[in-house]
Amino acid sequence: MNDKEELVRKGYDTLSEKFQKNRPIFDIGKELEAFRTLLPKNAKVLDLGCGTGIPRTKFLVDSGFNVTGIDFSEKMLKYARKNVPEATFIQQDMTTIDFQENTFDGLIACYSIIHVPREKHSLLLKTIHTILKPGGVMLISLGSKEWERTDDFLGTNMFWSHYNPKKSLQMIKDAGFQIIFDRMIVGGGEKHYWILAKKGNNDLSNRFFQIYLELREDFEKQVDLDFNFSGITYAISIVFWSNARIR
User: Fold this and answer.
1) Which residues pair with 182 in a beta bridge?
2) Are residues 197 and 218 in the same domain?
3) Could you give the number of structural domains in the chain?
């Protein structure tokens, strides 16, 4: 762990209580739901940089997944274990994870890789690809522009390191991922670059899911849902609805 990474770890230890109470909760519900839809029942999911476990780790656990959270801030993990006792939490630097190949069905890294020195991003993405099972899904957020800086964050020093989205996307492809979607999301006065990608090379299935996501938004606006859909049932419902609409 270099000095910049140690600055991030100490920073989150220092602000953990303030973060637990005051950190804005960004609206990434659609992105998390898209990720969830692609996972099998009882999927094994890794949350890289899980922080206090709220809201994303909890969302994954509530979805019925077996979740492992990684964070190198001991104090953030103390909150996470209280907030989401059903998950397993490990204190570790995400750049040193050493799980076996094909361990996880899914992985998320929300607002965490942005603190990793960008020269380590490429190797980290390749490691993520290795530990995901074939067809495994990754949802991550990266920087919206090329930028590296140490600055104040909630009263303590913090470090960020980003490449521009074009370079980040190419690194993800070079790591072996197929892109399902990439988009900019603005929330809480911040702008982040989000990518949903899959381990594998089935372009047809990726394109099908892109169409599904486009139809889904229209579906939810026009259909009054009084019960919960999930997984393939939800997708089939959208297909039948869209077919009926075309006719």
Assistant:
1) 195
2) no
3) 2
pLDDT in tens, the chain (247 residues): 678 888 888 988 888 887 777 665 566 788 999 999 999 999 999 999 999 998 899 999 999 999 999 999 999 999 999 999 999 999 999 999 999 999 999 999 999 999 999 999 999 999 999 999 999 999 999 999 999 999 998 889 999 999 999 999 999 999 999 999 999 998 777 899 999 999 985 554 555 555 555 555 554 555 444 444 444 444 554 444 444 444 4
DSSP one-letter string for 108-154: EE-S-GGGS-GGGHHHHHHHHHHHEEEEEEEEEEEESSSEEEEEEET
Contacting residues for 80 by C-beta, under 8 A, at least 6 apart:
50, 51, 52, 53, 57, 69, 71, 87, 89
Pair 70, 86 in one domain: yes
Short-list 41, 142, 146, 48, CA closest to 93: 48
The rounded distance, in Å, linking the Cα atoms of 64 and 42 is 6
Which residue range forms the structural domain that includes residue 224?
208-246
CATH code, domain with 76: 3.40.50.150
Using the Cα atoms of residue 167, residue 147, residue 28 and residue 32 in order, give the sign of their dihedral.
Answer: positive
C-alpha span between 66 and 57 (Å, rounded):
10
Under a CB-based contact definition with an 8 Å cutoff, are residues 59 and 81 in contact? no
Task: For residues 42 and 163, state if they share a domain.
Answer: yes
The span from the CA of 127 to the CA of 101, in Å, is 9
Specify whether 83 is located in the same domain as 128. yes
Q: How far apart are CA 203 and CA 195, in angstroms?
A: 16
**pTM of the full structure:** 0.81
Instruction: Report the candidate in 129, 122, 114 with the shortest Cα–Cα distance to residue 171.
Output: 122
